[in-house]
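Sequence only, no structure available. Ideas?
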Amino acid sequence: MVLAVLIYIGSVLIILWGIGHLFPTKNIVKDFGTLSADNKKIITMEWIAEGMALIFLGLLPLFTVIFSTGSENAFYISILGSAIMLIAMAILSAFTGARTSILPMKMCPYVKTLGAILMILGAVI
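Reply:
I predicted one. Tokens follow.
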């Protein structure tokens, strides 16, 4: 059960990173400068959607560890599924947002990858 702590840490890291996407949404959109109303709505929607996705990808393994015995296939499927999605999102971030001058965007692939690695280690080892 000690390794469950790795899943807890990875999950909470991703949940907090997701929450961190939600609060500055208005300022992020404002930083894009003059945009059409449609473009503002699209950027707002995408920024909130990534935050919600990250929160979900953190909550799923967290709840799996809390409410599971750790011996069911669903335990491994949910945790590894979340980790794989985080790695896919980290790759996307590495080729897009991380190439900007914005520090949190540069950190995004590393945070997502770290969360995924902690989840995988906690589930597999």
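Residues 4-124 form one domain.
Hope that gets you unstuck.
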